[in-house]
Design brief:
mainly beta; 6-stranded mixed β-sheet; 10 strands; globular
Length: 121
């Protein structure tokens, strides 16, 4: 069972950038789709983007298009580059995997513990 771990969060000023990483404990298979989600206090978990491992094709939520970008790195890591950070991006960011091309958190497994992103205004 592949486990995922997030890293790279921190405190940044609005307008800054961060690169989050999602690293697998084992090989990521071609059938896997890696998703990024975020959850702010008192809010539901929100889909951010997903990447199909076999092709590198990505899909993003409308709220982050143009500022967020996912990419593969080696055999075990997916990055989430976040540019022009806004205070509303403050949340705990999670990665997870699925084999379905979906934005629904219910379809994802192997959730990591999350990494905190805090954006100051």
């Amino acid at each position: 069972q592949v486990q995922l771990e997030e890293s790279g969060g921190g405190l940044v000023q609005a307008g800054g950038s961060l690169r989050l990483s999602c690293t697998a404990s084992g090989r990521i298979y071609s059938s896997h789709i890696i998703g990024w989600f975020r959850q702010a206090p008192g809010k539901e978990r929100e889909f951010v983007g997903r990447l199909r491992w076999s092709t590198g094709v990505t899909y993003y939520a409308d709220s982050v298009k143009g500022r967020f970008a996912m990419s593969k790195d080696g055999a075990k890591t997916v990055h989430l580059q976040i540019n022009n950070l806004k205070p509303e991006d403050t949340a705990t960011y999670y990665c997870a995997r699925t084999t379905d091309w979906t934005s629904s958190p219910a379809s994802y497994v192997s959730w990591g513990q999350g990494t905190q992103v805090t954006v100051s205004s």
